[in-house]
Write a structure and sequence with these properties.
Elements lengths: L7 E4 L3 E2 L6 E4 L6 E2 L10 E4 L4 E4 L3 E3 L2 E3 L4 E4 L4 E3 L7 E3 L2 E4 L6 E2 L5 E3 L4 E4 L6 H5 L13 E6 L19 E2 L1 E6 L5 E2 L16 E2 L3 E3 L7 E5 L7 E3 L3 E3 L4 E4 L3 E4 L3 E3 L2 E3 L7 E6 L3 E4 L5 E9 L4 E3 L3 E9 L4 E2 L6 E3 L4 E4 L6 E2 L2 E4 L4 E3 L9 E3 L6 E6 L14 E3 L2 E7 L9 E5 L19 E5 L25 E6 L12 E8 L7 E7 L4 E6 L15 E6 L11 E8 L10 E10 L2 E7 L3 H4 L10 E2 L4 E8 L6 E5 L12 E7 L6 E4 L4 E3 L4 E4 L8 E7 L4 H6 L9
Parallel strand pairs: 1-5, 2-6, 5-8, 6-9, 7-10, 8-11, 9-12, 10-13, 11-14, 12-15, 15-16, 16-18, 17-20, 18-21, 19-22, 20-23, 21-24, 22-25, 23-26, 24-27, 25-28, 26-29, 27-30, 29-31, 30-32, 31-33, 32-34, 33-35, 33-36, 34-37, 35-38
Antiparallel strand pairs: 1-3, 3-4, 38-53, 39-40, 40-56, 41-52, 42-43, 43-46, 44-45, 45-52, 46-51, 47-50, 47-52, 48-49, 48-51, 53-55, 54-61, 55-61, 56-60, 57-58, 57-61, 59-60
Length: about 725
């Protein structure tokens, strides 16, 4: 075979690179004949034609390669080197598949590029850094319409991608698709080379970021870099069903839509960002959920529309663009979360909900920013408490045990050993509040794990002393299940309980389960509690978390506490106990501003202390849950309506009690500003609804003012 042939080559059929029958050749690119040779770096050009798939499974050195649309070049073995020739040395308008553990090398000056419809597929585990570093004219010029696929094919191989390579700021990708064809779920959390990581750089995805792609098996992608900027997605963020994005580092910025068939989440204790930027309309769709620590709207123009509910855990910042919501697809600002408006042209255009008892100004408006505020106060509404009573001193098997809330049952999740530990409900392990050591007692029963009677405890219930094995077998995996809990009409449900747990690592372990009416699922592996109280006494600790969204308005919820031990004969002196289980609905208010005349849309009747109400707009404030009263603050500005004499303004509420249908005087508890400011009510409200600003006439000056065409507008 001649090795230094200088002619042009093109594929004539699919086949292997090292077979001359795969190729035809020409000296002028016009007249072609079947080839007796194979192409190499001395060839003038090498073209893979539409419909052909060529395999590189032996050593190849080449340049001036052109993969046409509809053609594929598969690098599946041995060694591939790109020599430096005129222009770009690998031009991919079709598909290049990099499925080997041997790095394709670019000799000094050699480059490659993707065409507008080209695709690069990385399925081998060799580094992809050189593909970023050797892109023609810089990786930042990769076309946004091209596609880069990271495809896992087997459990043993984790194909990589890069965070830091390619440019001064970090890696660039066109449309980036991550997909899993291996038989088990792909979790990149512990695989640095297959996740975004590092302390300095950040990746930019110029097209869409698709987590899951067409892969049949789901994956968890870990975004954990701490570069100065978040991961930038200039197109859409798509998370497929069965897949998820774990957003733990600096965060992610999206300039397109967010489509969640899977979900986005972050690890507790992390502080990632989720930013919406760009100048186009954006939407958030899907069942989700979208787990957000900090969310920022920083759009140069246009708005973001929620087509699913979204909850903010820490902070939402408005610095450009409106957030469109409705009563179904609502913004929820969680109990500890806050809202910051840096740009008064940026706010929630629709309803917003706030959980908790803190003072809060709702960042709402319509044609302009028109917030409404509530003061601090009130409390959670605790609607279900299980404290297990005080009816049994010892030996009361929890299976079919009835408390004031109903009957608890115990289910074996796997076949128990002959000497398996049991769940008991009694005060042989006395209950206590968080911060105290466990002890036997009287009158405060708990649900706890103890020995079977044959292990030396006469009743089988000697508190949380348990048997770790080995003969006869103590193997067990049991779940104590609560009676049915009716959560109808409840949402955002918080579960709180006191517990302690020891055992041997995760071999002897306690877990929290949840039942949605159809399926049991483990929602928390309980942490081992402190050893402050010594080896034979547990340290009561409080645990608090929110139940899954499926608990909202669900009449068929159950809770389960699981204990398992593996009969290895290794274990501490204490097992697990739980008490004071409480389900609470956090205080919750929903507010929305309406840029419409309240007299025409709500009603015109007023108490006799009021002379007039504004015709410019009104607020709807609803108490969703909780116990307590609130003062209400209304924000006014001269840009939306005329304001003067704020000392005569009154917060008014439309009272529909007993069909009264009248605006009530809520008083003036203070104000700031003459033509722009805030007016607080002089009294608290236990009933809510529609609010607006009214005026109380008490002077000739104000009487003459009412002759103006603005009549009480604010």
């Amino acid at each position: 075979v001649q090795t230094n042939f200088l002619g042009h080559f093109r594929s004539i059929q699919s086949g292997n690179w090292n077979q001359p029958s795969t190729w035809e050749t020409s000296t002028d690119s016009i007249n072609w004949i079947p080839s007796l040779y194979i192409p190499n770096s001395f060839s003038n050009s090498i073209v893979i034609q539409n419909g052909h798939s060529v395999n590189i499974n032996s050593r190849v050195r080449a340049d001036e390669i052109f993969i046409r649309p509809g053609a594929t070049l598969n690098y599946i073995g041995d060694k591939l080197s790109f020599a430096d020739g005129p222009g770009c040395d690998l031009n991919v308008s079709g598909t290049f598949v990099d499925n080997t553990d041997t790095v394709a090398s670019f000799e000094s000056g050699a480059t490659w590029q993707l065409g507008a419809t080209g695709t690069y597929i990385k399925s081998g585990q060799a580094s992809a850094v050189n593909w970023q570093n050797c892109y023609y004219n810089g990786i930042q010029n990769i076309p946004s319409t091209a596609t880069w696929i990271v495809r896992k094919l087997t459990n043993a191989i984790n194909p990589p991608l890069s965070t830091s390579a390619g440019s001064p700021t970090g890696a660039y990708y066109p449309n980036l698709i991550l997909e899993n064809y291996s038989p088990t779920k792909w979790n990149t959390t512990g695989i640095a080379s297959s996740s975004f990581n590092g302390p300095t750089y950040y990746p930019t995805i110029k097209g869409n970021f698709d987590i899951g792609g067409s892969g049949p098996t789901g994956l968890i992608f870990y975004n954990q870099h701490f570069g100065i900027m978040p991961t930038r997605v200039l197109g859409n963020l798509i998370v497929r069903g069965g897949s998820s994005l774990l957003n733990d580092g600096t965060g992610i910025e999206v300039q397109g839509n967010v489509n969640l068939f899977g979900f986005v989440n972050y690890t507790k204790g992390k502080t990632p960002r989720f930013d919406f930027t760009g100048g186009n309309a954006q939407s958030v769709t899907g069942p989700g959920p979208l787990g957000v620590y900090d969310l920022t709207l920083a759009k140069s123009s246009d708005n973001v529309s929620l087509l699913m509910p979204v909850t903010i855990d820490h902070k939402i910042t408005f610095n450009g663009g409106k957030l469109n919501t409705d009563n179904t697809n609502i913004l929820i600002i969680d109990t500890p979360a806050t809202a910051s408006v840096l740009n008064t042209a940026s706010y929630v255009n629709g309803p917003a909900r706030k959980l908790g008892t803190a003072a809060f100004d709702f960042p709402i408006g319509k044609s302009s920013y028109q917030p409404i505020g509530i003061n601090a106060g009130g409390m959670f509404d605790t609607f279900w408490i299980e404290n297990f009573g005080s009816s049994c001193a010892a030996g009361c098997d929890a299976n079919n045990y009835t408390t004031s809330k109903g009957t608890w049952t115990v289910t074996d999740l796997s076949a128990p050993g002959a000497n398996a530990n049991k769940f008991y409900i009694s005060y042989s392990e006395n209950g206590s509040t968080a911060g105290n050591c466990s002890a036997p007692g009287s009158g405060n029963s708990t649900l706890h794990v103890g020995k079977a009677a044959i292990t030396g405890c006469a009743t089988g219930d000697c508190g949380t002393s348990y048997y770790a094995g080995t003969s006869p077998s103590a193997t067990c995996n049991k779940r104590a299940e609560s009676p049915v809990i009716n959560c109808s009409g409840r949402k955002g449900i918080q579960l709180t309980f006191d517990y302690f747990e020891s055992g041997s690592t995760t071999n002897d372990d306690a877990m929290l389960y949840y039942y949605d009416g159809n399926t049991w699922s483990m929602i928390l592996n309980l942490s081992k509690t402190a050893t402050t109280c010594g080896a034979s006494s547990g340290y009561w600790t409080q645990q608090s978390l929110f139940l899954p969204a499926s608990s909202n308005n669900n009449p068929n919820v159950k809770l389960g506490f699981c204990w398992k031990n593996n009969n290895d004969g290794i274990g501490s002196a204490i097992s697990f106990a739980v008490d004071n289980i409480r389900l609470s609905e956090p205080m919750s208010y929903t507010a929305e501003y309406f840029d419409a005349d309240p007299k025409l849309n709500i009603g015109s009747s007023m108490e006799n202390t009021l002379d007039e109400i504004t015709t410019c707009g009104f607020w709807k404030l609803k108490q969703d849950a909780g116990i307590g009263t609130k003062t209400v603050s209304l924000y006014y500005d001269n840009a939306s309506c005329y304001i003067s004499l704020p000392s005569f303004m009154r917060v008014t509420r439309f009272d529909t009690t007993a069909n009264a249908n009248i605006w009530r005087d809520g008083g003036n508890g203070g104000y700031s500003g003459t033509t722009n400011g805030m007016l607080s009510s002089g009294s608290t409200f236990s009933s809510f609804g529609n609010f607006t600003i009214g005026y109380l006439v008490r002077s000739e000056e104000h009487t003459s003012e009412l002759q103006s065409p603005y009549v009480i507008s604010y």
